[in-house]
Design a protein that fits this description.
By secondary structure, the chain is mainly alpha-helical. It has helices spanning 2-24, 30-54, 63-81, 87-111, 121-135, 157-160, 168-180, 184-198. Helix 1 packs across helix 2 (30-54), helix 1 crosses helix 8 and helix 4 runs antiparallel to helix 8. It is globular, with a radius of gyration of 18 Å.
Length: 199
């Protein structure tokens, strides 16, 4: 399941990015546009999810609907614009990306969603931040009882709200967890695998 999630997320980001470029009329050479499309897809997901979370919606309240809207958008734009998918020129890049995925994410084949890689403080931070924005609005001030040990994710309000530190990873992690109804820790490595492919 983990490797399927990784590949599905990568393809989704690639198609979403290409659909955004086509809808906005952004012109690049065909191969370059497909190589850039996963990054544009990632930026689209993060910016829309962040804005909805900042206006007061917990990500779990709209993550699945936003994902469905993205799929409808992709299908509509692809039917309208009919973009060319250059399989032969893309093949070497996809081959290298897949070999990189096998090299870096081989434990995913053994442990599936239970593999957490090199679990360090950053991973814990991203997962706790994702749990917070998944369940609460971005700027929602935590209650005192939540800060006394009932909800440790609320400590990330100081990071997100007044601190305004970067939160793209937390937002993306929360969106994907919401879209497929899994916990942020479970989807953290499939997301890293997909971002490795996009890179």
């Amino acid at each position: 399941l983990a490797i399927i999630l990784t590949l599905s997320l990568f393809v989704f980001l690639m198609f979403l990015g290409k659909a955004v470029m086509e809808a906005l009329g952004i012109q690049f050479p065909i191969l370059r546009s497909w190589l850039l499309s996963p990054c544009i897809g990632l930026a689209t997901v993060v910016l829309l999810t962040l804005n909805l979370n900042q206006i007061g919606l917990p990500i779990k309240s709209f993550g699945s609907w936003l994902s469905l809207a993205f799929v409808v958008f992709i299908v509509a734009v692809f039917r309208w614009r009919r973009p060319i998918l250059p399989w032969k020129p893309l093949a070497p890049f996809l081959g290298i990306a897949f070999l990189s995925l096998l090299w870096t994410c081989w434990p995913m084949f053994v442990y599936g969603l239970r593999w957490v890689g090199y679990m360090n403080g950053d991973m814990g931070t991203y997962c706790l931040g994702a749990i917070r924005v998944l369940n609460y609005a971005f700027y929602r001030i935590p209650e005192f009882r939540e800060l006394t040990g009932t909800d440790y994710s609320q400590y990330w309000w100081f990071h997100h709200g007044p601190g305004l530190f970067r939160s793209g990873a937390d937002i993306f992690l929360a969106w994907f967890a919401s879209a497929i109804h899994l916990r942020p820790l479970e989807v953290s490595m499939p997301i890293l695998g997909a971002l490795n492919l996009a890179q």
